[in-house]
């Protein structure tokens, strides 16, 4: 018997488009047998996803995607099979979410200086969860006609030396690995092709 795995997924707890329950149901319908919920810097969707997974007979792996600054760039490290109750992990993730909130407000301020008002409030409304990401800003800017697509928004507004760019000040690689390992998890680099 062949099992189908998806070890990197996001819900509305970060920058996904589905609630944890909807994500589990969608994965199950698509034939996924083992799903890891790995929201950005947040584990708040895991309890709901776990209940939904039990109801449909899907194996849920508790996870998280930790934002890291390494070698002057942002990388993401996925933690799989973590204990979401781990105090060191939760303290570290809380710090990253606090920074994310400040960064989102700063992105809004920088875009306003370039004549794009209301970007922060719009991104916050699009977020629906605790995390306001660059994706939410991109959705707003594309929807307002400032670029042809979400991808174009990143190219013209959200990368270095562009109006809405705010450099990341994330966890160190050592911190992220420590948090994941302290939580009993396995650390894996996310999207290494980037």
Task: Report the C-alpha radius of gyration, rounded.
Answer: 17 Å
Report the total helices. 7
Major beta sheet, specifics? 5 strands, mixed
Shape: globular
How much of the sequence is in beta strands? 15-25%
Widest beta sheet: strand line-up: 1-2-3-4-5
* Record field, number of beta strands: 5
pLDDT below 50 for ≥5 consecutive residues: which ranges?
Answer: none
Please explain how this structure is put together.
With 194 residues, the protein is α/β, with parallel strands linked by helices. It is built from 7 helices and 5 strands, in the order βαβαββαααααβ. Strand 1, helix 1 (20-29) and strand 2 (34-37) form a beta-alpha-beta unit. Helix 1 packs parallel to helix 2 (46-56) and helix 3 (87-113) packs across helix 7 (173-182). The mean pLDDT is 95.
Task: Please sum up the structure shown.
The chain has 194 residues and is an alpha/beta fold.
Write the layout of secondary structure elements.
Elements (H helix, E strand, L loop, with lengths): L4 E5 L10 H10 L4 E4 L8 H11 L2 E12 L2 E8 L6 H27 L5 H9 L6 H10 L6 H8 L15 H10 L3 E4 L5
Parallel strand pairs: 1-2, 2-3
Antiparallel strand pairs: 3-4, 4-5
